[in-house]
Amino acid sequence: MMKAAEPNISTNLISDVEAIDRVMLRLSWAARKQLAQELEQYNLTVPQYVTLRALRGAPAGCTMRELAEAAQQLSPTMTGIADRLDEAGLIRRETDLRDRRSLRVYLTRQGEQLMETLEEQRRSRLITVMSCLEPQERRDLIRLLDRFVNASLDQNQTDIHRSVVNE
Amino acid sequence: MMKAAEPNISTNLISDVEAIDRVMLRLSWAARKQLAQELEQYNLTVPQYVTLRALRGAPAGCTMRELAEAAQQLSPTMTGIADRLDEAGLIRRETDLRDRRSLRVYLTRQGEQLMETLEEQRRSRLITVMSCLEPQERRDLIRLLDRFVNASLDQNQTDIHRSVVNE
DNA sequence: TATTGTTATACTCTATAACTATA
DNA sequence: TATAGTTATAGAGTATAACAATA
């Protein structure tokens, strides 16, 4: 008889999985919509924001290829995003003198200022939200979420560059 | 002197906020990429999947307007998404006989089967991931995450329809 | 020949405005 | 007139293939 050896634990795991599935879909959907809305006032899209963050977290003057990897984009996609960030005056691209195939990408001062503004705004919003949790609960949430995300994303090769998106 | 009254707690809150900011960006970005990749083999996009889930969670035969609300989309956007789901044979739209302005949307049998397949696939993947956590840790994660998401999204009006996206 | 980055192309999503049909 | 849904249009992201310049 190969029924579930431990019905309670098994049942709990299934219902846990359904609960986490719902909350994760909600996060990756509704949270993204909220971020998009927050960025809209600065005429910034989510991929553009991710790119700026990757750029900020990367060593100064990374190449287009490195930037594309860090932001998890393909080369042609990154070209388009960089074109628009460039046009908005948030980044600049300069030919690498030692390898004239490469472009070095930098945040402009305006880009740095925008990122500071956004960081301040995000921080104050998150402080409000996080205040709803006790200090110990906050640490638990971060620790467990980090373990979950690592386990979840390390299954795939999707997340090779998490150190950069993660800053 | 209005310095931080409790330096340790204050400092911890700031660093907690930075940690949660990173992991949240990572979730709403990398996790979405992973979902997109998982759906790709079925020629399904993330918005299409969210729509199918909302449809599955909604009472049978909801209107286009209700579906758009449930999936947090604008009317014209939902028309386009529904067109493609229709063309793929996953949903069907029928004129409401009592109000001929309205369309009633249904999952086709093919659509239901696809959703079952996807649910099975997601479940088995999540079971693997969740197994990395102890039962008590899983419950803690779900509880804390739920509280965080509610606090975070209830700030905005972004998430009016979480019951449906949430199923 | 291999690499860097771009252009060309096609499709999807998103947002706004204008429109049709129904109520 | 108000509502349900669509079409029209434009911009942005995503993916593939082809290309130029450089190494």
Question: What features would you describe in this structure?
Answer:
The structure is a homodimer of 167-residue chains. Chain A has helices at 7-40, 46-57, 64-70, 75-87, 109-130, 135-154, 162-165, and strands at residues 62-63, 91-95, 103-107. With 167 residues, chain A is mainly α. A three-stranded antiparallel beta sheet of chain A has the order 1-3-2. In chain A, a hairpin with a 7-residue loop joins β2 and β3 (103-107). In chain A, α3 (64-70) crosses α4. The longest helix of chain A has 34 residues, at 7-40. The termini of chain A are far apart. Residues 1-5 and 157-167 of chain A have low confidence and may be disordered. The interface between A and B is large, with 64 and 64 residues. The first copy, chain A, binds a DNA duplex (23 and 23 nucleotides) through α2 and α4.
Order of helices and strands of chain A: HHEHHEEHHH
The main sheet of chain A orders its strands as 1-3-2
Oligomeric state, counting identical vs distinct chains:
homodimer
SS-derived structural category of chain A: mainly alpha
* Through-space gap between termini of chain A: 51 Å
Task: Classify the helix fraction of chain A into a percent range.
Answer: 55-70%
Largest sheet of chain A: 3 strands, antiparallel
Number of helices of chain A: 7
Q: Specify Rg of chain A, calculated over alpha carbons.
A: 20 Å
Give the strand tally of chain A.
Answer: 3
Shape of chain A: globular
Average pLDDT across residues of chain A? 87
Q: How much of the polypeptide of chain A forms β-strand, as a percent range?
A: 5-15%
**Chain pair sharing the greatest interface:** A-B, 64 and 64 residues
Ranges of chain A with pLDDT <50 over ≥5 residues? 1-5, 157-167
